[in-house]
Amino acid sequence: MSNNPALQTLRSVFGYDSFRGQQQHIIEQLIGGRDVLVLMPTGGGKSLCYQIPALVMDGVGIVISPLIALMQDQVSALHQVGVRAAYLNSTLALEQVREIEQQLQNGELDLLYIAPERLSNARTQALFARCKIALFAIDEAHCVSQWGHDFRADYLLLSVLHEQFPQVPRIALTATADERTRQEIIARLALEQAQVFVSGFDRPNIRYRIIQKDNARQQLLNFIRTEHPGDTGIVYCLSRKKVEETADWLNQKGLKALPYHAGMEHRERQKNQHQFLMEDGLIIVATIAFGMGIDKPNVRFVAHLDLPKSVEAYYQETGRAGRDGLPANAWMAYGLQDVLTLRQMLSTSNADEAHKRIELHKLDAMLALCEMVSCRRQALLGYFGDVLEQGCGNCDTCLEPVETWDGSVAAQQALSCIYRTGQRFGVTYLIDVLLGKADDRMRQFGHDKQSTFGIGKALDEKQWRSVFRQLVAKSLVEIDFEGHGSLKLTDACRPVLRGEQTLMLRKDAQIAKTRREKAEK
Ligand code: ADP
Ligand code: ZN
C-alpha cells in the first residue's frame, strides 16, 4: 500500500492504477498550497487534478463551472464512486439550495460545483465565509479572456475569490489557450504566482499535411483513393453549398459520402450523423457544425477543403481523426482564394473592430502554419505552449522537406506591378500584366505600356499565384474588399521593394513537380 494519499485516492476512489501525464505534479502543487494553471486538451484528465486534492485536503473544493449540464454529469459520476459532491445553479429550487448550504456548513461535502454568476451573490459570499474551503477550481478558465472565443462576463468576478480568500490555493483549467489567452487568464485571475502546466496536446498518430490547391476536389479524391480506400473520414467545407456539391461528387465517383450542415432539415441531419457513427467506411462531408461531441474512434482521416479560421479550430477539427491511437491523416488543400474568402468574410462581418482585429490575427497564425517550412507539429503545439524539442518526423514538412527559392526579384516585380497599376486590381489581372497578356481593357488603361508589362515571363501563372499567395500570407500585401479584392501594398513590403530584404519563398510541391516534368521533357 502506498503512503502517498493522492495515489491512494486515485486507486481506492477512482479505481485507476497510476497518474497520467502531469496529473501528479499538478496535484502535489495544489496540496502544497500553491496556485496552478493547467492547459490540457479535452479528455486529457483535468478533473482529477482538482477532485483528488479536494478529497485529500481538509475542507470542500469549490469548482466554478459555466456549463450546467457538465456540472450535473460530474456530480452524478462522483456520487457513483461515493464522493460527497453537489452543485448550486439556477436549476435548483430554494429548498434544495438550503439543504446544500446546510451540508456545506456542516462540512459534509468534498466538492461543490457552482455557476460563476452566483459568486457575486452576497448569500454565496456569506456561505463561503462560514465554511472551510480546500481549494478553488476554475474550469473553462479561457472564459475570462476577451481574446478567447468564449468570453463570459461573470468570469471577471472570479478575481474576488483571491481577494477574499488569499490563502486558498486555486487551480485554473482550460483546453484551449494560445499565448495571449494565457496571459489574459493570468492577469485577470491574478495567477502571476501560479505554476503553468501545458501538456498532452500532441497527437503523435496524426500525420499533418497541407498542400497547395490545384483542383482541390480531384486532389481530395486522389488522396482518399490512394491512402484511404474504404476508410471512415470527415471532409470539412466552409459553405453549405460546397458540402452538398462535394458529397454528390464523391458519390458519383463511387465513394459513400453523406452531407451534414446546419441548413439541412433536422431529421435528415440526425440520420446522417447517426449513420456515420454506426457504420464504418462512410465519409461525412460537413461544415464545422459537425463534430461537437462526435467521438468516433476510428476516423482515419480529416480533410479540409477550406482553410479553418484559426489554429484552434484546425487543431480541434483534425483532432477528430485517430482517437483510437492508430495512424490517421489530417489533410488540407489550401490556396490564395481561401485567404481572400476568409478575409472578406471577416471584413464584411458585423463584429466590432476590436473583435475583427483579433480574428484577423488568428487567421494570420493559421496562414503561417500553412506556409511553414519547418515541422508543422512543432508549430501547432507551440501555439498552445506545448514544447516539442525536435521535428516530429510525421508531418509533410518533416517527411519531405520543403524546397525554398529566393523570391526577392519576383516579389519586387509583383509589388511594382501592384503599385504601377494603381493598387486597384486583383491577382488575375496583375498576373496578366506580368505575363504580358494584354486585352482591350488592359490597353484602355494603358497598362500594356507600363514598365512591369511582360517582365514576369520567367514564371508561369501558377507560380505567380504562389508568389501572390505568399505575399498576402506574409502581410506584404493586403486585400481591399471595398475595392473588390484589389491588392494594396502594406508598409511591411518596403524593404523588399527596395531590395533591402531577401525573401525566401516556398516552392510549392505541385509547382516543383511541373517544373521537373518540363525539364524532363
Ligand atoms: P478533461 O476534463 O480534461 O476533458 P476528464 O477529466 O473528463 O478530461 O478525463 C477524461 C477521461 O480520462 C475520464 O474518463 C477519466 O476518468 C480518465 N482518466 C483521467 N485520469 C486518468 C488516469 N490517471 N488513469 C486512467 N484514466 C484517467
Ligand atoms: Zn514534423
From TrEMBL:
Enzyme Commission code(s) on record: 5.6.2.4
Source organism, top-level taxon: Bacteria
Enzyme class: isomerase
Gene Ontology MF terms: DNA helicase activity; hydrolase activity
Domain Helicase ATP-binding: 27-195
Necessary cofactors: Zn(2+); Mg(2+)
Catalytic activity annotation: Couples ATP hydrolysis with the unwinding of duplex DNA by translocating in the 3'-5' direction
Keyword Metal-binding: yes
All residue ranges annotated as the Helicase C-terminal domain in the record: 216-366
Keywords: ATP-binding, DNA damage, DNA recombination, DNA repair, DNA-binding, Helicase, Hydrolase, Isomerase, Metal-binding, Nucleotide-binding, Zinc
Family to which the UniProt record says this protein belongs: Belongs to the helicase family. RecQ subfamily.
Protein's recorded name: DNA helicase RecQ
Species name: Methylomonas defluvii
Encoding gene (name): recQ
Shown stretch of the complete protein: 1 to 521 of 710
